[in-house]
Structures are given as structure tokens and as C-alpha cells.
């Protein structure tokens, strides 16, 4: 199962055939951030184009979403961003972002 892929990636890295964070489609980037706001408010900051454009100076288009759990964006450079939202309490939430494919590390 999953361990076979892990072993394959490890061998490819050891032989210099694959760099860290490299996938077959290119490189990827991921990050998480916990903030002290309810998950609905955090989700809205990403989902509402006016709010998003106030703090994010980059062209993006919402591809799909499921409030208040996920939003998928087409990014201006041809990559995609997946945002996942998790409530950590009534006034605390976390967003996990993944962007791919990126052209290089």
C-alpha cells in the first residue's frame, strides 16, 4: 500500500532522481496556520472575493467550495491551491493550504 510509494520516493531521492517536495506533476508547497477566530469567519475571509483581495494581492478564482470546510482556487500562475478549514474551538480555527504544481523548488 502506502509504504511502497514511500520506499519508491526514498530510493529516488537517494539516487538524485527526485528532489524534496517534488511530485510527478511538479513541486508542491503546504502550510498551516491557527488563528483566533471562528472557522466560519476564517472561511469567509478566503471565500469572499472582496475580503480576499484586501489581503491577498494575487489573481485567484474559486474553483469549488464547501462551506465552511474547503475552498479550491485556480491561481494566476496556472497552479491550484486547496484550502482546508478546521474548527479548533468556538473562537479558534486552522487553515491548511496546499499549492501545486509549482515549476521548481
Can you tell me about this structure?
The structure is a single chain. The protein is α+β, with helices and mostly antiparallel strands. It has three helices and six strands; from the N terminus they run H-E-E-H-H-E-E-E-E. It has helices at 2-14, 39-47, 49-55, and strands at residues 22-23, 26-35, 60-66, 70-75, 80-89, 92-102. A six-stranded antiparallel beta sheet has the order 1-2-6-5-4-3, covered by helices on one side. The mean pLDDT is 88.
Q: Which features would summarize this protein structure in a list?
A:
single chain; 105 residues; alpha+beta; six-stranded antiparallel beta sheet; 28% helix; 44% strand; globular
SSE layout and pairing:
Elements: H1 2-14, E1 22-23, E2 26-35, H2 39-47, H3 49-55, E3 60-66, E4 70-75, E5 80-89, E6 92-102
Antiparallel strand pairs: 1-2, 2-6, 3-4, 4-5, 5-6
Q: Give the count of helical stretches.
A: 3
Order of helices and strands: HEEHHEEEE
Number of E strands: 6
Could you give the distance between the termini? 27 Å
Q: Based on CA inertia axes, which overall geometry fits?
A: globular
Nearest-integer average pLDDT: 88
Derived from helix and strand composition plus strand pairing, the structural class reads alpha+beta
- Whole-angstrom Rg: 16 Å
| Amount of beta strand | 35-45%
Share of helical residues: 25-40%
Low-confidence segments: none
Largest sheet: 6 strands, antiparallel
**Largest beta sheet: what is the strand line-up?**
1-2-6-5-4-3
Task: Give a nutshell description of this structure.
By secondary structure, the chain is an alpha+beta fold. The chain is 28% helix and 44% strand.
